[in-house]
Amino acid sequence: MQESDEKTLGRRALLTGMSVVAVAGIAAGAGPAAAQTGGGGFQPARHPKDAWLGELPGNHRAFVDSSSIVGGATAVWNAGNMIDAHVSEYEGQPSDYALVVCFRHLSTPYGYDDAIWAKYGSSFMRNADPVPVTNPMKVPAANNGQHSLPELVEKGVQFAVCSRATRRMAGAIATVTGSTADAVYAELAAGLIPNARLVPAGVIAATRAQEMGYGLLFAE
User: pTM, whole model, 2 decimals?
Assistant: First the structure.
């Protein structure tokens, strides 16, 4: 019994000591976060190229990211469901949302219009049979939850299209067609879907959106 009592007293002393240290730390404002920010809290830098994210109207902010062919379709599905649920379950309006869908990496071509798909669809989906000659997300289908790009555009959804992926695709297309990468890039950049804009990098847009209070959802 004596040994048990000693162990109990030892644990109590240890916990008491830890509590004193913790309280002292709080009182002094100590800790890595406080030391790094000087006690003022983290404030992300702002850049003109990201300003549009802060200017979108809406009481809710959401950023749906995608990086694959399947993920791009899922992103359309997620965005459509998000607005529909808000309208039906919260008695809201589509305009309540500042909602951005990001097409980057392999989902980037979903950000191009039908004219681009008609010309370069075989480069975007080489293994498809048949090869799409219009943007596959233009029409409701099973893989996008019966939602579509025109529907999302009508509801005010915005689209971020990765410029770095666009430039990479332009280089690959130029190699096959005998054009120049700059010429193809300019063509792709001019052929975006409505409500879309090229962003310096999709991955940066995703992180900058979070800094501006957007909820992030990654579509797979």
Answer: 0.82
Whether the predicted pLDDT of 26 surpasses 50:
no
What are the structural domain ranges in the chain?
2-37, 48-218
**Nearest to 72, CA basis, from 155, 168, 145:** 145
Sequence-distant (≥ 6) Cβ neighbours of residue 54 within 8 angstroms? 46, 212
Take residue 75 and report the two structure tokens written for it.
């992103």
Q: Tokens 């080489």 label which residue?
A: 126
Alpha helices by DSSP H, listed for 29-61, are: 32-37, 51-55
Closest listed residue to residue 150, CA positions, set 162, 139, 158: 139
- Between CA 165 and CA 75 the distance in angstroms is 18
Topology adopted by domain 48-218? Hypothetical Protein Ychn; Chain: A, (3.40.1260)
Q: Taking each helix axis as running N to C, give the angle between helix 114-124 and helix 181-190, from 0 to 180 degrees, rounded to the nearest 10.
A: 130
Per the DSSP assignment, residues forming a β-bridge with 99 are 62
Whose CA is closest to 152, among 101, 219, 111?
101
**Gap between the Cα atoms of 104 and 219, Å rounded:** 12
Distance, CA of 85 to CA of 51 (rounded, Å): 28
> Could you read off the pLDDT of 75-112 as tens digits, one per residue?
999 999 999 999 999 999 999 999 999 999 999 999 99
Taking each helix axis from N to C end, the angle separating 114-124 and 163-177, rounded to the nearest 10 degrees, works out to 70
